[in-house]
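re: that chain from earlier
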Amino acid sequence: MRPLSIEGAWVRTPAVHHDERGRFHEWLRADEFGAAVGRPPRPAQANCSVSRKGTVRGIHFTDVPPGQAKYVSCVRGAVLDVVVDLRRGSPAYGTWEAVRLDAAEGTALHLSEGLGHAFCALTDDATVVYLCSTGYQPLREHAVDPFDADLAIDWPRDAAPLLSPKDAAAPSLREAERQGILPSYDDCRRLRGALPGAERTA
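^ sequence. v structure.
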């Protein structure tokens, strides 16, 4: 696993083994994960989404604490997966980084608590699976507009974007900040054990 430019995000590109039967790769290794992230994976929920080409899901994030870390991979087709730093006080606040996830490469992405997550389906029936460190809690779930001009995410332009009504109505980053719903950088670091003073709950 290698760190991305945004602190708290890592990408893993596994060795993919091919033979006449098909292919095989290790999707997750707890030892590699723990060595990179500093704690073992602790999945509480596993999700699977299937999306038409052009579908944009996100930018999603949860209240911190408890937060929700994610380990994401694409098992059919391909997506452009985007990490957005929504943590108030972070040196990288308001920046983003994109990683292509596709079934052929088996690449996986880990996002720590407090980071925003979004993706765009690059193919029809793009199937994304992800492990979450906490279960779904609707009152703690939030979103930021994936087409916020201040974020200026470089989404693919070869298909008309398709969003859920909730994502289409999501506030801009500035409005989310005014609403007081964004996580703080220090709270997120405490959850990861980088600062003292809070129990790790992920």
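The radius of gyration is 16 Å.
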